[in-house]
Specification:
heterodimer; A: 342 residues; alpha+beta; Rossmann fold; six-stranded mixed β-sheet; five-stranded antiparallel β-sheet; 21 strands; 25% helix; elongated; B: 270 residues; mainly alpha; MetI-like fold; globular
Chain lengths: 342, 270
């Protein structure tokens, strides 16, 4: 089942907030992550797809069928919420089997299915437990089993890991991805956590202020962001306003750097993006794009150092990552400077 | 740095003062109740601090008094019926008010919350007398009208209890989850909302029963001779023997205490 959003717009009554002309297609079995800062409209988008919010313009289709006329309970989409939203008056197994009970599946069949799913999410033996007695990670796994139990046409994940401790977030992230692959579930994941999006998703949609900024693979989003907003939100970077000042040459205010300008005219205003892992340390003094300065703030990350490298006259320090810290200079290879027009 | 012992002294002084105030308030509150118990077991009690003699005859007389027995039954019937009506009305009312919050519903919720304080029972009673003492609606003094009045009077208390629980539980999250799993509006209400409100519904209903059984102002205005409630008949007892009046009051008190204890036990469990 493929999920397609075409020119979907929605404005909350009495406000200017909402989403504007969003077009995203989630292919069969694909996991698409929607990321963006708070208020970017990503959760609104998920609510529109699930039917919890209605009244949009544009179309949302599932395998070619328009969902506009269907109420939330008729859409057959499994949804996992940030707050787990488990039913406190039901046991773990009853929670998982709830959707099947609504579909008039016999008691023994639905409890067997619940047991099967609980085993899948690593909660074998917890069927009779009270949901309030489970840890956050366990509750979210129950919520995932509950959403999958109804054999949904699409799986919607609303910040599923945000309420969990960092220690179990990574583990559960991998588990969700494995289960999603196993079920071949067409999945839309909403998160504000870029690491979660980049590691779990096949493709990523970046949103800001209700608009879709970029929709691409995680590698594409990271390596080739189409705007400063995307570059700032995804990954770490150093971004400086720049002016094209010659053939394959830019001026970033405190120095000039060689980089392909791809036919941009002289005087064109751009932003120069440099990722921290692309810097070379203590290069040959005669090489191009050599930037002399000094390390100011250091962060030890185990396999490498991440540090601020201050340059004379620069408005802010460069962010650099390397196995050893630079002593007096760093270099950014021309091909690793990405120019952004807006 | 000031010496620590100075702070400890101040704390001890404060503790002592708080304890004294608590004890004084406890005596003020409990002394009349204790005297009622003592009075209900005393033989005679006129112009003295404590009654003379010991007897259980006031309770025996109370048990044999048909008007008290009938009033007691009437009070239980009225309280039970008020509970039944409230159970049917309050859950959908609180649910609607909760979901209407922000759409004008918050004002309605505030009105419902403030009603028991803003509208005294005597006002409600006079309103009933004006409306139901006419040829069109000649129901003043009837049991159904008394039940309706008690239900109206106690409904805001139960609705408030349920509204508080609805806000605390944030049931809309659970309803959203149920909806995505295929539950229709009625299935969400009956399968998710009602079961999760059962504790507050139960404790609220015990409170409704306690309020209804002890209610005097409204009942005094609306009851006919055939369906007087226990507090209304109790008032007449004070024109007779003091011991009898004390025993009758103790029965009412025990009933109210049992209700309050049950309600608090339910709340604690929830």
């Amino acid at each position: 089942m493929s999920l397609a959003l075409h020119e979907v717009s929605y404005t909350y009554p009495g406000t200017a907030h909402g989403v504007k002309a969003i077009t995203i297609a989630v292919e069969v079995g694909e996991l698409v992550a929607v990321i963006g800062p708070s208020g970017s409209g990503k959760s609104t988008l998920l609510k529109l797809v699930s039917g919890l919010t209605t009244g949009h313009s544009g179309s949302i289709t599932l395998n070619g069928h328009d969902l506009s006329g269907l109420q939330v309970h008729q859409r057959n989409m499994g949804m996992v919420f940030q707050s787990y939203a488990l039913f406190p008056h039901l046991t773990v197994a009853e929670n998982v089997a709830y959707g099947l009970r609504l579909r008039k599946v016999g008691k023994s069949a639905r409890l067997a299915r619940a047991q099967e799913l609980l085993t899948l999410v690593g909660l074998d033996g917890y069927g009779a437990s009270n949901v309030a007695k489970l840890s956050g990670g366990q509750q979210q796994r129950v919520a995932l089993a509950r959403a999958l139990a109804i054999d949904p046409q699409a799986l919607l994940l609303d910040e599923p890991l945000s309420a969990l401790d960092a220690s179990i977030r990574g583990q559960l992230r991998d588990q969700i991805k494995l289960i999603q692959r196993r079920f071949g579930a067409t999945t839309l994941l909403v998160t504000h956590d870029q690491e979660e999006a980049l590691t779990m998703a096949d493709r990523v949609a970046v949103m800001k202020d209700g608009a879709l900024l970029q929709f691409d693979t995680p590698e594409g989003i990271y390596a080739a962001p189409n705007s400063v907003a995307v570059a700032e939100f995804v990954g770490l970077s150093s971004i400086f306003p720049a002016t094209v000042c010659g053939d394959d040459m830019i001026d970033i205010g405190f120095c000039r750097l060689h980089t392909p300008t791809h036919g941009r005219s002289h005087g064109a205003q751009v932003s120069a993006l440099m990722r921290p892992e692309h810097f070379e340390i203590d290069p040959d003094p005669a090489c191009t794009n050599r930037l002399a300065g000094a390390v100011t703030l250091t962060r030890y990350l185990g396999s490498m150092f991440r540090y601020d490298f201050e340059l004379p006259g620069a408005p802010r320090a460069l962010l650099v990552e390397s196995r050893q810290m630079a002593r007096e200079a760093v270099r950014i290879p021309p091909e690793h400077i990405r120019l952004l027009d807006h | 740095m000031p010496p620590l012992w100075g702070d400890v002294q101040t704390d001890k002084h404060g503790d002592r003062m708080l304890r004294s105030i608590s004890v004084a308030y406890g005596i003020y509150l409990l002394l009349p109740i204790a005297l009622l118990f003592v009075g209900s077991l005393g033989n005679t009690w006129t112009n003295s601090l404590l009654p003379d003699g010991f007897t259980a005859r006031w309770y025996a007389e109370l048990l044999q008094d048909t008007s008290f027995r009938k009033a007691f039954t009437t009070s239980l019937v009225v309280a039970g019926a008020a509970c039944f009506i409230n159970a049917l009305l309050a859950v959908p009312l609180a649910y609607t008010l909760y979901h209407a919050a922000g759409r004008g519903g918050s004002l309605a919720a505030k009105v419902v919350s403030a009603m028991p304080i803003a509208v005294p029972t005597i006002t409600l009673g006079f309103g009933y007398i004006i409306v139901f003492n006419t040829d069109t609606a000649p129901w003043l003094g009837t049991l159904p009208l008394l039940i309706a009045a008690h239900a109206v009077h106690t409904l805001p208390y139960l609705t408030n209890t349920l509204l508080t629980d609805l806000r605390h539980l944030r049931l809309e999250r659970l309803e959203d989850a149920a909806a995505t799993l295929g539950a229709s509006a009625s299935q969400r209400f009956l399968g998710i909302v009602v079961p999760n409100l059962r504790q507050s519904l139960l404790s609220g209903l015990v409170m409704v029963a306690a309020i209804s059984i002890g209610e005097f102002g409204l009942s005094n205005l609306l009851t006919g001779f055939q369906n007087r409630t226990y507090p209304v008949v109790l008032l007449q007892a004070f024109y007779g023997a003091t011991g009898f009046a004390c025993a009758a009051t103790v029965i009412l008190l025990l009933l109210a205490c049992a209700s309050a204890f049950t309600a608090s036990t339910i709340v604690k469990k929830s």
